[in-house]
Write a structure and sequence with these properties.
The complex is a heterodimer.
Chain A lengths: L2 H7 L2 E7 L12 E7 L5 H4 E2 L5 H6 L8 E2 L5 E2 L4 H8 L3 E8 L7 H10 L11 H8 L4 E4 L13 E4 L10 H10 L4 H16 L9 H13 L4 E8 L8 H23 L6 E7 L19 E6 L7 E4 L19 E2 H13 L3 H8 L9 H4 L2
Parallel strand pairs in A: 2-9, 2-10, 6-12, 6-13, 7-8
Antiparallel strand pairs in A: 1-7, 1-9, 3-5, 4-5, 6-11, 10-11
Chain B lengths: L1 H15 L27 E4 L11 H31 L2 E4 L2 E6 L2 E13 L6 E11 L2 E11 L1 H4 L3 E7 L8 H13 L10 E8 L6 E7 L5 H16 L6 E5 L1
Helix pairs in contact in B: 4-5
The chains are: A alpha/beta, B alpha+beta.
């Protein structure tokens, strides 16, 4: 399969970083999954500060007609039904008014910056998860055509992409099938067994939707010697126009991904953390196309069996004009890097100070692990 | 001269190269100024309202709780079903192709003739057939649909019977069933769950009779249609000595 063909088929993409069992010294069963929401998630529409008086005046037309209530301050978009259930069962934590400290509102820079987590976009050739894996001497293997920056470390990571996706060419089984008719009856029997074995050991998923990828990721991560980290890309969050229905369907997709991941992980859910990341939030005020434009602060969801969920965590800045970043965007008052550092600390068993200094190059990065995990 | 020219060009090219990136965040690429922010100064935890909150359980605990809930549901269901089946057995029995339908103090016995065909239902066995029977002193030739939900519930049966040689209203119960099925867009939308109620209509004069043991789908669209139409029969034949009973 050509890379171009793969990209056409992809509704999203999945990358997994696996490690050899012998390399794991701490928390060998813990896993980390990142849902990367490309385009810039409108956090005010996903996790809605319903008690915020200025919300209606800014964006009445973007507000859903019904809400999934959490408490007197917060509610979820009605598309996030599974997420809501998992928040009520204390498995998901919402975090608001947060982002990486990137304020320039460029998709390319933002996505690179959030994965690279350096001092500026395009300064790093490794990602923060990759650097974390480096610190515990994990090599790795990415199940992806291109290893995303987020998972890249300095330790070499093999690239591997299973061939048996729909329409793919499987050289081994194809060759065996070609020679089959020319073999004697005795060898044909052996050849059939070989074909069965080759086919059995190849990747069977034909569905390239993010939901299917989340399911595949969950299955792989739940294996005893399976990958330790995964990144699933979900596109389409750049909702400049007609945001209502478009964002609703994207949030439904995310919601299904979360649910599928949990279901396919099985008991491994208890040892897994997932986080959502996006390059930026969106403008507080609705634009002329019933959408919103590139902004700054947004929301995140952090979930998993070990997460102290059932709440929203925020240093809420308010939505009055004077409270907004550059008088237009939700201010990010929580540094998302702290949340990512907490996920790394929990998953890899590293010290926060080491993560702050050597992964995020920010020695003063605040530690919030105790606020996230039980 | 050439050497001097080459040296100048080489120096210019070297100057144009960007500095190599370093994996420690110190690359010399122009940095974007990071805004100063008040991180974590007032981080607050807004818990989900207690009325919504559920206990946090591990997956193992969730599975155990689910199994226990299923057990309890099955226990209740079996209890209800046993009661309903006991009740149902007073009204309907089937053996060797003969069935006996008892309504109140009357008994209707019919033998299947040769005109019988399977209903080709997805989730149950069913047959449609012409039957001849007797209700009191009245001889009745009728069309019956007998559906066994045994595939799923082991004991549930639905019997709809409508005389075909009687008044224009005689097909009502069959058409009610068909309408209800059509309204649901599926053959047996309610085939899961418990037996819930038994409805029976007996009135030879109007000749709309039905004996139904249906699944527990009180809010199901099928049942709404069915139930509403059953009531409409009652209204339709009011004062015409129709005995209509609905018991749950």
């Amino acid at each position: 399969m050509k890379r171009r063909d793969f990209l056409k088929l992809s509704g999203g993409s999945l990358a997994l970083a696996s490690v050899p069992t012998w390399a794991r010294s701490n928390n060998p069963n813990r896993r980390l999954v990142v849902f990367f929401l490309e385009g810039g998630l409108d956090g005010l529409s996903a996790l809605i500060p319903k008690a915020e008086g200025a919300l209606e005046s800014h964006r009445e037309s973007l507000l859903p007609t019904s809400l999934l209530d959490l408490n007197s301050h917060w509610a979820l978009d009605p598309s996030l039904r599974n997420t809501h259930k998992l928040m009520l069962s204390q498995d998901i934590l919402g975090v608001h008014a947060t982002n990486f400290p990137y304020t320039k509102r460029s998709h390319f820079e933002g996505q690179n910056f959030i994965q690279g987590a350096g001092k500026a976009p395009f300064t790093e050739s490794t990602g923060w998860i990759g650097r974390g894996l480096d610190l515990v001497n994990y090599g790795g293997r990415a199940m992806s055509l291109d290893t995303p920056l987020l998972l890249r470390g300095t330790t070499s990571i093999d690239n591997y992409y299973p061939a048996h996706v729909k329409g793919a060419y499987n050289p081994s089984s194809d060759l065996l099938k070609r020679i089959h008719s020319g073999l004697s009856e005795q060898w044909q029997t052996t050849n059939e067994k070989l074909i069965a074995r080759v086919t059995k050991n190849t990747y069977q998923s034909n569905d390239r939707s993010p939901n299917a990828l989340a399911r595949e990721a969950g299955k792989a991560l739940s294996q005893k010697d399976g990958p330790i980290a995964a990144m699933i890309r979900l596109g389409g969050y750049d909702t400049h126009a007609g945001q209502g229905s478009r964002l609703g369907s994207k949030l439904t997709e995310l919601d299904l991904c979360i649910s599928s991941l949990k279901d396919s992980l099985g008991e491994a859910w208890d040892n897994t953390t997932f986080i959502t990341l996006t390059e930026f939030g969106r403008t507080v005020k609705v634009n002329g196309s019933s959408g919103s434009d590139h902004g700054y602060g947004t929301c995140m969801f952090i979930g998993g069996g070990a997460v102290n969920g059932g709440a929203v965590l925020a240093d809420w800045p308010g939505l009055a004009k004077s409270d907004l970043f550059e008088r237009r965007d939700l201010m990010a008052t929580l540094d998302s890097r702290s949340l990512c550092a907490a996920a790394l600390e929990h998953t890899l068993g590293l010290e926060h100070d080491e993560i702050a200094e050597r992964v995020f190059f920010e020695p003063n990065l605040k530690r919030v692990t105790d606020r996230i995990y039980l | 001269m050439k050497l001097a020219y080459l040296a100048v060009v080489t120096a210019m090219l070297a100057g144009c190269q960007s500095a190599p990136q370093k994996p420690n965040g110190t690359g010399s690429v122009e940095r974007i100024n990071i805004e100063s922010q008040t991180y974590q100064e007032g981080m607050h935890r807004y818990p989900v309202d207690a009325e919504f909150l559920k206990p946090k359980l591990s997956i193992a605990q969730q599975q155990l709780a689910k199994r226990e809930a299923e057990k309890e549901r099955n226990r209740k269901r079996n209890l209800e079903m046993a009661e309903d089946v006991q009740l149902a057995s007073k009204f309907y029995a089937e053996k060797d192709g003969w069935f006996t339908w008892v309504t109140d103090q009357k008994q209707f016995i019919a033998a299947p003739n040769l005109k019988s065909k399977p209903m080709r239902l997805l989730m149950a066995d069913g047959r449609e057939q012409i039957v001849k029977g007797q209700l009191g002193n009245r001889q009745i030739e009728a069309r019956a649909k007998v559906i066994h939900f045994g595939v799923l519930t082991d004991r549930s049966v639905m019997l709809i019977i409508a005389p075909i040689n009687s008044t224009p209203g005689s097909e009502t119960s069959i058409s009610i069933f068909n309408d209800a099925v059509a309204a649901c867009g599926t053959a047996l939308p309610y085939a899961f769950g418990d037996i819930h109620f038994i409805s029976k209509t007996t009135n030879p004069a109007v000749a709309a009779k039905q004996a139904c043991i249906v699944e527990k789908t009180q809010h199901d669209r099928f049942l709404r249609v069915f139930y509403n139409n059953a009531l409409s029969i009652e209204q339709q034949v009011e004062g015409a000595e129709l005995e209509l009973g609905l018991s749950s």
